[in-house]
Write a structure and sequence with these properties.
Bound molecules: zinc ion
Distance between the termini: 75 Å
Strand content: 15-25%
Length: about 230
Amino acid sequence: MTSTLPITSAPLASDYTQDTAAGIALSELAHDLYRRGWMAGTSGNLSVRLAREDTVLITASGLGKGRLSPSDTVLVSATTGEPLVAGSARPSAETSIHIALYQAFPDCGAVVHAHTPYATALASRAARAGERWVRFTDFELIKGMGRPFVDTITIPVFPNWPEVPRIAAEVKDHYAASEGDTAPVLLIAHHGATAWGANLAEATDRLEYLEALSHLALLVEDARTSNH
Ligand SMILES: [Zn+2]
């Protein structure tokens, strides 16, 4: 029996396969980060850039990360963050921050945002001292952030504005004004940490390095900030 499907079904089928694989990867990572205590309740959000042009798959808003299913994800525009499929779930409330990063870094393939306790504590301490960044020096783990950051890495701390688009706008402005190599991670005071990379694995590794560095810095009271 010959297929009645139009020839255009081929790319659609591959899109479906890709979206399903990405949905599985996002949900499995959400479960993993939830079990570590980094995505309590519904907090945190994850996204991955898909191969076809201008598309990102991001976790849906308001769902428990410990029980997220592969279909609890939303296809959005990598330019606007708007859902691309009519009737889809609401994308993460922090989608605009993800989009700011995809726009700032064309090679960014995935963004991981979680409420990791040590990094959040360090960012909050910096903010309370009126400082806008945290710097780590000498720790071996700095090398995990990439070659330019062998000895020292400086990480911006953004205020946790109640309006998420305002945070996203500051993220966008910060990287538009940055020169040279920037750390592939950022902090939001009293809120959490965000890491990005070529893919979900690299972004997750970087989040782990940031959390481990923050833990170490707090243990040795060596968190260098802009007033030191
Ligand atoms: Zn958050």
